[in-house]
Amino acid sequence: MNDSAPGADGTLGTARAAGSRRKDVRRNQQTLLDAAAAVFVTSGVEAPVRDIAAEAGVGVGTVYRHFPTRADLVIAVYRHQVDACAEAGPALLAAEVSPHAALDRWVGLFVDFLVTKHGLAAAMQSDDAGFEALHAYFLDRLVPVCAQLLEAAVAAGEIRSDVTAYPLMRGIGNLCIGAETDSRYDARRLVALLVAGLRKD
């Protein structure tokens, strides 16, 4: 029994080290994704990789080690932002004073996401299958979250019950078209009017 103990300890130690390395890799990827998202907002998806590396405080080689191509990075940033928006829904529903307030805050995050994609479609147009997969991921993650918020607000008697998640999100998306390139157009104000219009008379 004593003879096997060192081996067991060694195996356990190796497993712990591997788990720690995986956590480090995930943490590094999150840092890079946050940095890339910030750079994309100001410079678009064609921003130099060195700018993203500088924002993250790492070398350019580190960026390429995690994301070998620009498309890999753009897709990862997009999915990362979709995930953040999806995870915010239940958190807001638990934290806000009312379901309608949670819906209003979440729609604000959704609008921020829509108007700061900065050239995603153009970056992905060479890979239609990749773009279609991203769009499906977007719908699969976000439509149920919006539905949950709407259902909670309806149950609380705060909003009308004849609006469902997909049409609402599609309408918000249409209101956001062109917002990033026209300083005279305030998409957020129009979306706020739309959400206010959901309230029951």
Mind explaining what this structure looks like?
The protein is 76% helix and 0% strand. The chain is globular and about 65 Å long. The protein has helices spanning 4-43, 49-56, 60-66, 70-95, 99-115, 120-124, 128-155, 165-176, 187-196. It starts with a helix and ends in a 5-residue tail after the last helix. Helix 1 (4-43) packs across helix 2 (49-56), helix 1 packs across helix 4 (70-95) and helix 4 (70-95) packs antiparallel against helix 5 (99-115). The longest helix is centred in the N-terminal third of the chain and has 40 residues, at 4-43. By secondary structure, the protein is mostly helical.
Q: If you compute it from the alpha carbons, what radius of gyration comes out, rounded to the nearest whole angstrom?
A: 21 Å
Percentage of residues in helical conformation: over 70%
Cα end-to-end separation: 76 Å
Which runs of at least 5 residues are low in confidence (pLDDT < 50)? 1-6
The biggest beta sheet reads:
none
Hey, roughly how much beta strand do the residues contain? under 5%
Count the beta strands.
0
Mean pLDDT, as a whole number? 85
Number of helical stretches of at least 4 residues: 9
Shape: globular
SS-derived structural category: mainly alpha
Element-by-element helix/strand order: HHHHHHHHH
Feature tags:
201 residues; globular
Compose a concise summary of this entry.
The chain has 9 helices and no strands.
